[in-house]
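Our preliminary data section would be incomplete without showing what the modeling component actually yields. Below, a chain of 268 amino acids is followed by its predicted structure, encoded as tokens that our downstream tools consume directly.
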Amino acid sequence: MTAEVDPVAERPRTGRGTFAPRPGAAPLPRMIAAQAALETRMLLRNGEQLLLTVIIPALLLALFSSVDVVDTGEGPAVDFLAPGVLALAVMSTAFTGQAIATGFERRYGVLKRLAVSPLPRWGLMTAKSLSVLVVEVLQVALLTVIALGLGWSPQGNPLTVLLLLVLGTAAFSGLGLLMAGTLKAEATLAAANLVFLLLLVGGGVVVPLDTFPSAAQAALEWLPIAALAEGLREVLRDGAALPWDHLGVLTGWAVVSLAAAGRFFRWE
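Predicted structure:
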């Protein structure tokens, strides 16, 4: 006769109040990476965002480079337009797209729920910024291929171009988050699209700033889109080393906008 074995007694014992596997939050870098990947997928799956961030800049580049609509000065039109459209792509993703998406996330309570998760609030903002950078890499690659196909011959140091793009991204991200964190979602949607259209025309993207009256030109040069477009143009078309004036404008906008966003952003 064999003795029966108690299955409960054979189970491995753990201390009181402990669990196996032990529960807990994932490491912070893994949480940020996971959130950034989610944010990137959401951006790329959104048809309206793709229209704003990819299709419109690509169409503007192809159209204005092929048709003599605007007097872009001496040289091929694509040499003037390509840097401006790259600046527009940064603005469309870092400012317009991020402001609209974050504004509606705030309205629907998504940010409120994420704020009480193990991911800290600054980690969420970092993940959003990383997703913007990923989308911008895809934008820049696509627009560069189109511009090269249209006969573009870029000059200058790629590291300087990268510095301008990063500072432009920081400036526009701060402005987008400030708008999304202080206005209602519907107001953010309207304001972000209106600003996009106004800066498309008056930011030196496809229309040279010197076509405006001197007083207006002096004011427009202080806009972040104008500083980014003109800075990229000086490097990629003229081969300038470091456009310090434009770098200074972008740095000022980045510092002020990010500080204001951190101060006034409301999660609910």
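The CA atoms of residues 179 and 188 lie 6 Å apart. DSSP finds eleven helices and no strands in the chain. Preliminary results of this kind motivate Aim 1 of the renewal.
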